[in-house]
Write a structure and sequence with these properties.
Shape: globular
Order of helices and strands: HEHHEHHEHEHEHEH
Largest sheet: 6 strands, parallel
Number of helices: 9
Structural class: alpha/beta
Number of domains: 1
CATH architecture: 3-Layer(aba) Sandwich
Strand content: 15-25%
Helix content: 25-40%
Low-confidence stretches: none
Mean pLDDT: 94
């Protein structure tokens, strides 16, 4: 699959500029958030696989390598299921056929649950399990606490799905007070239409939407 072929309308870019425009992010206060680039969402034939996800791997790896060189911390997010405790899903959701069929596949210990080996992850970089689409909602993950302890105020978000876990994390991150940069050609949805609609909403109210090249240029130390 190729990268999504979408363009955000200029009026949306301009409206978003009044609320979310971050031309010079501080690398010392930024973190790269890589969302759900797991085997399950990238393998052909899986029920919830995204056929466009493999196309963004080169751009994600470029960003990872560049951020690693300038000392920006990298957090690898892994969507995770559990049947117990406050992070478990409500029964009505577990009864839905697709979720019931695929639920166990994203439990710890399953190969499909792991970060795909095509991603350039260093073993020293943390992998954070999340139990909801958003990293930041209650009972989902401890990412917010980790970021606060590290003094992070800016999020650089890549991964899949654009209109699912990426958008949910971006919206909630913005509402928690983070500056957010969404990397348009390092995120993937199922279709161009879904990707475009998600980027449009994020650009207007929740994030500065940039390309990989634009992000790398902005993050260059002075």
């Amino acid at each position: 699959m190729s990268l999504h072929n979408v363009t955000i309308p200029q009026w949306a870019v301009e409206r978003g500029r009044t609320m979310n425009h971050f031309p010079q992010p501080d690398p010392l206060r930024s973190a790269l958030i890589v969302v759900d680039m797991q085997r399950y969402f990238m393998a052909e034939g899986q029920d919830m696989a995204n056929p466009c996800a493999r196309a963004i791997v080169p751009n994600i790896n470029r960003i990872v390598q560049a951020m690693r060189q300038i000392g920006v911390p990298i957090y690898w997010i892994r969507h995770t299921n559990t049947r117990s405790g406050p992070s478990s899903l409500p029964q009505w959701k577990l009864d839905m056929p697709l979720i019931a069929q695929s639920f166990a596949t994203l439990m710890p210990g399953r190969e499909e649950h792991e970060i795909d080996p095509s991603l350039d992850r260093d073993p020293s970089e943390p992998v954070i399990d999340k139990y909801r689409y958003s990293c930041f909602i209650e009972h989902s993950s401890d990412l917010h606490e980790r970021l606060q302890a590290a003094g992070i105020d800016t999020l650089l978000v890549v991964g899949t799905l654009t209109n699912g876990c990426c958008e949910s994390t971006i919206r909630d991150g913005s509402m928690l007070g983070y500056k957010v940069l969404a990397v348009s050609d390092a995120m993937a949805a199922i279709t161009d239409e879904e990707h475009a609609a998600s980027l449009l909403g994020m650009r207007i109210g929740f994030a500065d939407v940039v390309t990989t090249d634009e992000l790398l240029q902005r993050m260059q130390p002075d």
